[in-house]
Specification:
Length: 410
């Protein structure tokens, strides 16, 4: 791969910077800079998606014929990094980065024509119905039933850890349509209209206090068979393909690099354990250098995946490697962020942040008092939220098993 920047790349960078400077309002920048997890404030995220869509940049990794961008690897990297540097809020990955790829590969033309344009505009907003109370990392153990009844599947059961179920108007879900054969067989991938009678949503309060995750209950919910992606009983094939994009279909390195730079900046002003500033402390500096080096390795691996995507391929087993590295790096960085924040970073002050969902049972001070700086208020929420990173999208232990089998033949 040629990673050197050409004159065209530099011109593209300037174009992106000009666009971000013109379109990112102070409110949108605040929502991006004060995110407490991988999810930004929902309203800010949707507003930013509309702005990107008007420019044709909402889904740059999609095939061009469906609204993607004919960008080089370097241009993808430039756009991601410049967006992070400018403080742009993140977009929900459920539609654009995940189910859209499954629809493009396995969907009918009618499904593509209906869903893809509406995903781009935000008119269709997806949540993911995978995990169940007894089927998390062992996803093939799912039991939510879908019984055939004429032109419909009648779905009964529940899904858990469903991000933004209260905001979503559609869900992509895995349901059990047969119980014969191996547990990976008899699973079907369906798109569910969340306004269908029989659906009940109950928010879950996370360690951070945010209500982003939910449990969703289905009581004889009728889903048209026309909403099946792929074939009935062969949803595991679709799910495996989609999970590659969930685990490694984006570029995490730029955001992690920006976080490392921000930590270095604040550590240069915070007191160290033996006098001086924290950045001069050998133990802290060594840990920061380690995560910076590992982030550079991640960046190269992401280039390889982007190259595969640009060539019409998919991430494959490399997505498991990216998922492991990116989530463990993010956890290491949030630990350093907490260390840099010091005692004031231990205070629970969500009113100074822009969380991805409502904060349960928290009453903000009437005068808006904040102990420390906003980034110190973000630190504990980011730390708590990132503990889940090595679990969601298939635990990192599962990912290591996949790599051992697929790459090492074990």
């Amino acid at each position: 791969m040629d990673l050197s920047w050409s004159a065209a790349d530099s011109a593209f960078r300037d174009e992106v910077r000009a666009f971000l400077a013109a379109e990112l309002t102070p409110e949108l920048r605040r929502a991006g800079r004060l995110m407490t997890s991988v999810y930004s404030d929902h309203e800010a995220s949707m507003q930013w998606q509309l702005i990107l869509h008007s420019r044709g940049w909402a889904a740059p990794a999609w095939p061009v014929q469906y609204g993607g961008c004919d960008w080089s690897l370097t241009q993808h990297y430039i756009f991601s990094r410049e967006s992070q540097l400018a403080g742009a809020p993140s977009l929900s990955p459920m539609g654009i980065r995940m189910v859209a790829h499954a629809i493009i590969k396995y969907g009918t033309q009618v499904q593509k024509d209906f869903f893809l344009p509406r995903i781009l505009t935000g008119e269709v907003f997806f949540c993911q119905g995978y995990s169940e109370p007894e089927a998390g990392s062992d996803l093939a153990a799912l039991s939510m039933s879908a019984v055939s009844d004429g032109d419909d599947l009648v779905c009964t059961g529940s899904k858990i850890w469903t991000t933004h179920a209260t905001e979503a108007n559609w869900m992509f879900a895995l349901v059990r349509t047969s119980r014969t054969g191996k547990k990976q067989q008899g699973i079907t991938f369906v798109l569910v209209d969340m306004t269908t009678p029989g659906i009940q949503i109950r928010p879950l309060v996370m360690t951070s206090g945010e209500e982003v995750q939910n449990q969703v209950f289905f009581d004889d919910v009728r889903v048209p068979k026309a909403n099946v992606i792929g074939r009935i009983d062969d949803g595991w094939t679709v799910a495996k393909y989609l999970l590659e994009f969930e685990r490694g279909g984006g570029a995490a390195a730029p955001a992690l690099q920006v976080m490392a730079e921000q930590i270095a900046e604040v550590a240069a002003t915070q007191p160290g354990p033996a006098g001086g500033v924290l950045l001069d402390d050998p133990a802290f500096a060594r840990k920061l250098a380690d995560v910076r080096i590992r982030t550079e390795v991640l960046e190269i691996l992401e280039y390889r995946v982007l190259a595969a995507l640009a060539g019409g391929g998919h991430p494959g087993a490399a997505s498991s490697m990216l998922k492991i590295i990116s989530t463990e790096l993010s956890q290491a960085l949030t630990e350093l962020l907490m260390e840099a924040a010091g005692p004031r970073g231990r205070a629970y002050q969500p009113h100074a942040t822009c969380p991805g969902g409502p904060i349960a049972d928290f009453v903000a001070p009437e005068d808006g008092y904040l102990s420390g700086e906003p980034w110190q208020a973000v630190a504990p929420l980011r730390y708590f939220n990132d503990r889940a990173g090595s679990i969601y999208a298939g635990s990192n232990e599962i990912q290591r098993n996949i790599l051992a089998k697929a790459e090492l033949g074990l």
